[in-house]
Amino acid sequence: MHTPNAFEASFIFFPQPQLRGDPTHVGLRYRDVWLTADDGVRIHSWLIRGEDSEDPNQNRILMLIAHGNGGNISIRLDQYREFVDRFKYIDIFALEYRGYGLSEGEPSEEGIAMDAIAARRWIDDYASAVPVEERPSIVYFGRSLGGAVATRLATVMPPDALILECPISSIPDLAKTVTPWSFLPVERFIHNRFDAASHAADVRCPLLVMHSEFDEIVPIESGQKVYEAAKGPKRFYVIKGAPHNRADYYDPEGYYVAMGEFLGDCSFLNSVTAT
């Protein structure tokens, strides 16, 4: 018999155990990374290497990517390629969640929060192995449910910048707006809350929220709520004409230029541009 939490999880998490490929399928260099979360669960992730620079003073970005509630780290291989092509000197840490892909365990909000912390610890150890002047700037990128994962991580282990694409404001908000049970007090019964809006109030790093104009899954008001809650420097970009999934396909130039301009305006990344 399923527990109430397991029943709830079946409506929130849609993991795929089978990887669709690896970064070499889109011409990228990578290494497998295995993390151990605080509760002992082993988590699989990727470190993807971007273009090398001969200048040791060249700013690099290490972007931790937290994906949405479906699939696994392999479903956006083409976007990893796009990031590397458009932003020079970027490396990507593709975080897998417990219960997804090759990772052990079962997904839950608290478990995934531990996975994200384990990832950031690994990144810090990785960055500390290079000279101070060559250490990368850390950027979190969270998509949809991953926006809540990245925002929560930013409150306990702050990045240099935070980028959110179509973030949920919270699971209770989503339940009230896109389910037939909006008239019920569903928020009382939800354990996996993923309350990005509440966590955003404690984020002080530069924030970019990008949300699809015609998002049919996570309404644009959700992203606006997260944006309005944040207290630090921030900007909001509407992805014109786009639905929830694959927003970068609908307005690729605007999407990547908005991201590049945001990173370029962050003082620590003033050499970053989008091509």
SSE topology:
Elements: H1 4-12, E1 14-15, E2 29-36, E3 42-49, E4 61-66, E5 70-71, H2 77-86, E6 90-95, H3 109-128, E7 137-143, H4 145-156, E8 161-165, H5 171-178, H6 196-200, E9 207-212, H7 220-229, E10 234-239, H8 247-250, H9 252-265
Parallel strand pairs: 1-5, 4-6, 4-7, 7-8, 8-9, 9-10
Antiparallel strand pairs: 2-3, 3-6
User: What proportion strand?
Assistant: 15-25%
CATH 4th-level superfamily: Alpha/Beta hydrolase fold, catalytic domain
Q: N-to-C SSE series?
A: HEEEEEHEHEHEHHEHEHH
Mean pLDDT across residues: 90
Low-confidence stretches: none
**Largest sheet, spatial ordering of strands:** 2-3-6-4-7-8-9-10
Shape: globular
Main pleated sheet: 8 strands, mixed
Report the CATH architecture.
Answer: 3-Layer(aba) Sandwich
The portion of residues assigned to helices is: 25-40%
Question: Distance between termini?
Answer: 53 Å
Radius of gyration (CA) equals 18 Å
In terms of structural class, how would the helical and strand content be classed? Answer: alpha/beta
List keywords for this structure.
single chain; 275 residues; alpha/beta; Rossmann fold; 8-stranded mixed β-sheet; two-stranded parallel sheet; 9 helices; globular
Descriptive notes:
33% of the residues lie in helices and 20% in strands. By secondary structure, it is α/β, with parallel strands linked by helices. Helix 3 packs across helix 4. The protein is globular and about 55 Å long.
Q: What would a concise description of this structure say?
A:
The protein has helices at 4-12, 77-86, 109-128, 145-156, 171-178, 196-200, 220-229, 247-250, 252-265, and strands at 14-15, 29-36, 42-49, 61-66, 70-71, 90-95, 137-143, 161-165, 207-212, 234-239. The chain is an alpha/beta fold and 275 residues long.
